[in-house]
Specification:
It is a single chain. The chain starts with 9 loop residues before the first helix and ends in a 9-residue tail after the last helix. It is an alpha+beta fold. Helix content is 36%, strand content 24%. It is elongated, with a radius of gyration of 26 Å. The longest helix has 52 residues.
């Protein structure tokens, strides 16, 4: 029996490599095309679902409302009605009661958490000058630990009447919202943290503190603009 093996020549090896490279490139192009087509095909549906989820969140952070209207913050610091389609704009969501009276404003904000950026929506009642609700729109915090910011009832109770009162001249937040260690809250503008989810819970406090310091004085001083008609 002849056991002699044929050793591939350099030319044969080169041709084999070219075939393999061509196949890999073809697979790569096909996968890329598939990803693009999938993205384009689902983009509209994803955007619609996000809009629906956001609208539901507005009702969660503004108790007692029955109607909403979107407003846009312009570059010169004024609020104007908006269709909400341009997500690059700073948008807020006014909530109204059955009789059409303003009940509050829902505000989007974001900041760095433990794993990634956390996006939240919080409700502002200008008549009590408090934050009256908070909802996590997007988070990649660690399941079982960081995601306590969405589930821990004691933590969420921080946002039922969190003080964001303005100074006497109505130009700034009198006491900026700040996070504190769990169990050490002594003032109405402090956010009591979560032991075991320290970074995530502190991030929420900082996000609201930074956002409210900027946008709430603008909202409060333009309340007459937030109307249904």
């Amino acid at each position: 029996m002849d056991t002699k093996k044929t050793i591939p020549t350099h030319q044969e090896n080169s041709q084999g490599s070219k075939k393999m490279l061509t196949a890999m490139v073809g697979i790569g192009v096909f996968c890329a095309l598939l990803i693009v087509l999938t993205y384009e095909g689902t983009k509209e549906r994803i955007e619609r679902l996000k809009a629906e989820a956001l609208e539901q969140a507005v009702f969660r952070v503004l108790p007692g409302i029955s109607q909403t209207k979107i407003f846009e913050l312009t570059d010169d610091g004024n609020f104007i009605p908006s269709d909400g389609k341009d997500r690059s704009k700073k948008l807020v969501y006014a909530g109204f009661g059955d009789d059409g009276t303003l009940k509050g404003i829902a505000i989007e904000a974001s900041g760095q958490g433990y794993a990634d950026v956390i996006r939240i929506l919080y409700g502002y009642n200008p008549f009590t000058q408090t934050v009256v609700g908070m909802y996590v729109l997007e988070s990649k915090e660690t399941p079982g630990l960081g995601d306590k910011i969405e589930k821990d009832e004691n933590f969420l109770s921080n946002f039922k009447a969190l003080s964001v009162a303005l100074s006497e001249d109505l130009t700034r937040i009198e006491n900026r919202v700040v996070p504190v260690k769990q169990g050490s809250k002594t003032n109405p503008w402090e956010v009591d943290g979560i032991t075991g989810a320290t970074i995530s819970s502190r991030a929420i406090g900082h996000i609201i503190g930074e956002s409210s310091a900027t946008i709430i004085p603008l909202i409060y001083n333009q309340l007459e603009k937030f109307k249904l008609d």
